[in-house]
Amino acid sequence: MAMGRFSFCLPYTLREEGGESNDPRDPGGYTNKGVTQSRYDQYRSAGRMPRQSVSRISDTELEDLYRRCYWDAVNGEKLRPGEDLSAFDFAVNSGPTRARSALAKASVGSPPIATVIENIANIRLSFLHALGTWGAFGKGWGARVARIEAASLKMASAPIAPHAAAAKARQKANATAAKRSAAAAPVGAAGAQHFLESPLWVAALVFVAMIAATAVVAYAAWRQSQRAEALGDAAAAQATAVDQLLTTSVAQVAVGQAKS
Predict the structure, then answer these.
(1) pTM above 0.90, yes or no
(2) Where are the beta strands (DSSP E) in the chain?
(3) What is the CATH number of the domain that holds 151?
(4) What is the rounded CA–CA span in Å between residue 184 and residue 210?
(5) 126-180 pLDDT, tens per residue?
(6) How far apart are CA 17 and CA 32, in angstroms?
(7) Helix, strand counts (H, E) of the chain
């Protein structure tokens, strides 16, 4: 069976998944190359093969499992370049059903491919941030989403630099908002006095609301910082590739003129 673009997208996800892992904080348990033992058991059983440790999964099985369980599940071959990687990696990380739903939401109004990719990344991060394991794995998840977004934009032949600049601008705006939120209330002696004279439960609610608002904007700033860094690196690589292509083209033209 022809693999199509699956063979182009798989290495990106495998690089993110890494090798063997058995972190007690991960509800998925023992994992090898992104495949949990339970998922591997299902795959082997469906193929009428005896179960074995996922540490023994072959490269052929690995590719077949990823294609059948994740790539085909999001109709990868029917998606546009870049859009396919974003949906596929989301499916591997958080499940095909959630990835399909995110793709549908990201595509409402038929926006440009770059916007669809950005929307998927934002939906993905919102979901991950709500998980109880965010504290343990959030930093790595955030970096992964940003790298996949950058790679997807590159696949879509979308200019990455504007997205990196926009992320940097949003990071700055969110960081400023976080500082203002932290210092917003009570302000001044009159504000402090009013705060202290309020009923205890009112003061507690105000304080909790202030902390929550600060945490939200601080997280937004951190998320945009990761995104800006990943997109900035990708934009630099993209510019270097263009420069190399131009240099090669100029050299080829010069050689052709010399021969003539």
Answers:
(1) no
(2) 20-21, 31-32, 35-36
(3) 1.20.141.10
(4) 8
(5) 999 899 998 899 889 988 998 999 999 989 988 776 666 666 666 566 566 656 6
(6) 8
(7) 10, 3
